[in-house]
Amino acid sequence: MVMSRAAGSKRLGAIGTAAVPEKQMASVEVSRIRPILSVPSWQNSVDGSPNETSISGDAGIANTTIANYFSKFSNAPVICKLVGRKVLDGVGQPTLEVEIYCTVKNYEKRICSTVIPSYSQICENALPETTEADEKERNDSVNTAVEWVNESLNTMLRDLKPTDQCQVDKILGDYFTKKVEEKKEIQKQVEEEPEATSALISCAPSATSLPGKKKAAKQGKKGAVAKKTIPPAEPVEPVLCGSLAIGGSSLAVSKAGATITRIPLYLHIALLKHGEDSPKEFTLPLPMVTVLNCEKHSPAKLKLMKEVMLIPPVQLSLKQGIERVLDIQKEMMRLLEPPGRAPSLQPADSKKGKEHNTGKKALPRAFKRISHLGCLITGCDNLEQPLLLMQTACNNIGLELGTDTYLAINCAAHELMDYVKGEYEILTGMFKSPDEMVDMYVELINKFPFIIALIDPLRKEDRQQWDNMCCALGSKCYLIAEDAATYIPKLKIDQNMNVPMCSGVVLKYINQTTVSDLIEVTGLLDSQRHITILGSPDGESSDDSLVDLAVGLGARFIKLGGLSRGERVTKYNRLLAIEEELAKNRTLREANLEFIAFPEESETENQLSDVLAPPKPDALPPEVSEPALQVHSLPAQLPENSTLT
After folding, report:
1. Where does residue 272 rank: exposed (0-12), middle (13-18), buried (19+ CB within 10 A)?
2. CB atoms inside a 10 Å sphere around CB 381
3. β-strand 94-104 against 78-88: which pairing, if any?
4. Nearest CA-CA partner of 469 in 460, 457, 481
5. Cα(568)–Cα(74) distance, rounded to whole angstroms?
6. CA-CA distance, 205 to 186, in Å (whole number)?
7. Lowest mean pLDDT: which of 27-31, 69-73, 187-191, 409-413?
8. Which among 412, 411, 436 is positioned nearest to 423, based on CA atoms?
C-alpha cells in the first residue's frame, strides 16, 4: 500500500505536484474547481444580478452565464419593510424620512430613502403663540406619520413590487381616505357636545387673516366698513395629522423602483407618465433662482415683493446660466455693502451705464443675513429699488436685463390683504384695491419688460382681476398661481382646474400627495395648456428627488430658492448632473419660453408662441420690442402721477 501511494505520488509529480503532500493536494484540487462551482454574492448588487467584481477569468464568464440564466426564473424584488423615522429639515424643524427595504434573491437589502418636507410655507409675521402652536402641530404630525409608516403601511405594502407605482399609490390613497373618515367621525362626536361646539366657535380664527386685521377693526369709522365688498377668503384646506406618511412612502417607492430597474429617477417618472410613448429627449426646466428676499415686516416699507428671482436665457446651458446668476449675485453683494464702504449705485462707466442716471436712488437696506430661501435678505422702500438694483448689477458686469437674463417676482399678495379695508397693503400705510393692483402691474410690466413672470400677484379669490390681468399681460408675462392654486389632490379629484385664469401653476410635493397624483395633475395641466412649475417648499431637506420629478414630468420651470444653504444647492447640483448626463447621451433638447395666449386678447397679442430667446426685435410684438429697447433709458424717478410707488 505504501508503494502504491508512492507510485501515485510520482505519477502526480509528473504533472507538477510531486512536491505537494497528499493532504494539501486535496485542497489544491478543490481550489481549482471552486470558482466554477461557487455561487456569486447577491448581497453586493441591488437587483440580484451577479457581482462581477468577485468573478475573474474563464470561470468568471461561465459563472456569470449560469447565474444570468437562472436569474430569469427568480422572483422579482419585492418590498419587505418600510422604516419611518423623525429627522430634521433644512431649518431645523422635524420632518419624516422613509426607508425602503426589498427582498432581492432571498436577501433583505436597503434600497433607498427619501425625506419629505413637513410644511409648505414659513410665515414671516406669525405671532409667538401661533408659532408655538404650529410647532406642536408639526411635531404631532411627524410622530403620527412615523407611526403610520412603521406599523400600518409597513404591513400593507409588504410583498408589493416597487415598480408597481399605481397599485402602491392606490393602497396609500385608500388608507388616507379611511383616516380622513375616522377623523370626521371623531369631529362629529365632539361637535355634538354643546361645550365643545361653543369652544370651536370661539376659537376658530380664519387661517388667512393677517395680524393687521384686528388692529384695523379698532380704527373707528374709516376702518369699520370696507370700501368695496371683496370675496371672502376661501377656507384653508385641512391637513390631516400624519399625512406626510402618504407622500413620503409614495416617493420612496418610486425611488426604489428606479433603483431596482437601474435607471435614473427622472426616466422612471417619465415612463410612469408616458408609458411606451416616453420622450426620446428631455428638456430641463428653467431655474427660477431667488437672489433677493424683500422682508415684508422689516423696517423698510415695501411689502409686495417677497422674492426677486433671476431666470437665465434658454440659449445658455444650465451650467452657464448658474454661473451668470452667481456673477450678478456677487455684484449685488458689492452694491449692498454698508454705507461707509458702499460704492455708488451709478453703474460702471460704459455705454449701457451712461444711459442710466440712478445715482439719486437710495440703496436698499441689506441686513447681511441669508434667508431660509437661500438668498440675501434686504429691505426696500418702493417697488423700483430692487428692480433698479438688479439692473445696475447687470450693467456693471456688462449684462442687459431682458436679453442676457430675465426677472421673476413672487408677490405673495395673499399675505397683504386687509380684510376690513378690502385692499392690499403694498407699502406701509399704502393700500390698493384689487382693480388698482391690476393697473399697477400693467404699468410695472410696461416700464420693466424684463420681468417675465409674476407669482401670486393677487389672491385666488379675486378671479375677475386675474381675468383682467391675463387679458392685459398674458402675452408679455407669465401669471402664475402658487398659493392661489388648490392643492394637488383636490385638483385630481375635481378633474377641473380650480384656480383663477393664469398661465401656470406651482406644484409642491407635500403631505398626502402621491407620485400618481402628481403625474395625473401635470397631465391635466398639459391638456389645458398651462405650464407646470415644480416648487420647493420653504422648509426644505437635502433630498434632491424634486429635481428628478421636474425633469421627468416635463416642467417648464423649477423654483428651488437661492444658491446658498446646502439643502438648496444640493438640488442645483443634481440639476447640473442631469444636464451633463443628458448631453452625454445626446438626449437633451433646448428649452424655449412661450407665453400663453388667452382668448380675450386682441389679434396682435393673441399669438400662441412669443419666443424670448434669441431676442430679435423684429420677432417680438411691437408692444414688447419697443419698451425692451428703452429699458436702459428709464428715468431715475417715475412721474408723480405714476401708479408705481
Report:
1. buried
2. 16
3. antiparallel
4. 457
5. 41
6. 21
7. 27-31
8. 436
Report the b/e string of 415-435 with b at 16+ CB within 10 A.
Answer: bbbbbbbbbbbbbeeebbbbe
Q: What are phi and psi of 45, to 5 degrees?
A: -120, 155
- pLDDT of residue 59 exceeding 80, the answer is no
Q: Which of 114, 69, 358 is nearest to 253 (CA)?
A: 114
Q: Positive or negative, the Cα torsion across 171, 174, 178, 179?
A: positive
pLDDT value for 368: 57
Instruction: Find where cell 431666470 sits.
Output: 311
Determine the residue type at 424. Answer: Y
Nearby residues of 533 by Cβ (< 8 Å), 6 or more positions away = 285, 288, 480, 482, 504, 505, 506, 507, 555, 556, 557, 558, 559
Q: Starting at the earlier edge strand, list the strands of the sheet with 417-418.
A: 417-418, 423-427, 430-432
pLDDT digit string, tens, across residues 93-123: 899 999 999 999 888 999 999 999 876 566 6
44 annotated active-site = no
pLDDT-derived band at 452, boundaries 50, 70, 90: very high
Q: How far apart are CA 234 and CA 239, in angstroms?
A: 15
- In the Cβ-directed half-sphere of 391, how many Cα atoms lie within 13 Å? 29
Give the tens place of pLDDT for each residue, 210-257.
444 434 444 444 444 445 688 888 887 788 999 999 999 999 999 999
Percent pLDDT > 90 in the chain is: 47
- Separation CA 507–CA 505 (nearest Å): 6
Q: Among all chains, which residue has been given the C-alpha cell 384646506?
A: 237
Find the catalytic residue in 293, 396, 410, 511. 511
> How many Cβ atoms are within 10 Å of 344's Cβ, its own excluded?
11
Cβ-contact 561, 373 below 8 angstroms = yes
Measure Cα distances from 310 to 328, 477, 578 in Å.
Answer: 9, 14, 21
CA atoms of 130 and 486, how far apart (whole Å): 24
User: What b/e readout covers 576-611, taking b as 16+ CB neighbours within 10 angstroms?
Assistant: bebbeebeeeeebeebebbbbbbeebeeebeeeebe
C-alpha span between 406 and 273 (Å, rounded): 31
How far, in Å, CA of 450 to CA of 179, rounded? 48
DSSP notation for 181-204: HHHHHHHHHHHTSHHHHHHHHHT-
Angle at the Cα of 435 from the Cα atoms of 429 and 438, rounded to 5 degrees: 90
107 secondary structure, DSSP code: E
pLDDT tens-digit readout, 468-518: 999 999 999 999 998 867 677 777 666 666 678 899 999 999 889 999 999
Residue with cell 431649518: 91
